[in-house]
């Protein structure tokens, strides 16, 4: 017994199903790539994680620098990165301040105030 040749409609259906299968596989691959890109790409506006780089050697020392903080305040932490140092200061009233200091010159660059959100 000989087999009947596939009908034209049957061959068309096999071709359509094959193309749809390829499209599903390609779409799934694109979805996985996009999810991976979103996971490993920082969000716009988010600060880049800073890598601690050693500060370049300063050719001039500033000796002793005096940075005044409010009376009764205490320094809670010091953090240095590159040519900047930030002193986290807590005032007697409980306000939180960040003093930004240039490590090359010892000068106070600015004070950042973090208001209470009570």
Could you give the topology of this structure?
Blueprint: H1 8-40, E1 74-81, E2 84-90, E3 96-102, E4 108-114
Antiparallel strand pairs: 1-2, 2-3, 3-4
3D structure, described in words:
This protein is an alpha+beta fold and 118 residues long. It contains one helix and four strands. It has one helix spanning 8-40; strands at residues 74-81, 84-90, 96-102, 108-114. β2 (84-90) and β3 (96-102) form a beta hairpin. The termini are far apart. The model has no long low-confidence stretch (mean pLDDT 82).
Summarize the structure.
By secondary structure, the protein is of the alpha+beta class. Helix content is 28%, strand content 25%. It is rod-shaped, with a radius of gyration of 32 Å.
